[in-house]
Amino acid sequence: LGQFWDACAGFPGSTEDVTILQNSTLWAIANEGGLFPEPPKEFMGQPLKYFLLGDAAYPLQNWLLKCYPESSVLSSRQRKFNYRLSRARSVIENAFLRLKARWQCLHK
User: What whole-number distance in Å separates Cα of residue 69 and Cα of residue 32?
Assistant: First the structure.
């Protein structure tokens, strides 16, 4: 099961997602290395780190995965990465849509 780790409210609806993120406590925590548990949990013998998923508008960070810029020279591996990242982001977007639908009373 997924979890919402942070909520940042109070921005107008037209505010870009990247602006909201960069003004959130989550951004500050991530920049300070707070997304990496100590000691790190292991998955298949490797240390497990947490990452945020973003679209092309987000700045590349060591804790934020974003797609490769669209280009005709992308390798098949890069296109596959973009596709899989897009699929993962759609799961997250659907979770936010369900959250917004559940708490419509907060929009008033």
Answer: 27
pLDDT at residue 73 tops 90: yes
pLDDT at 107: 60
> Residue 28: its pLDDT value, please?
92
Q: What is the 3-state secondary structure (H, E, C) of the chain?
A: CCCCCCCCCCCCCCCCHHHHHHCCHHHHHHHCCCCCCCCCCEECCEECCCCEECCCCCCCECCEECCCCCCCCCCHHHHHHHHHHHHHHHHHHHHHHHHHHHCHHHHC
* AA letter at 95: A
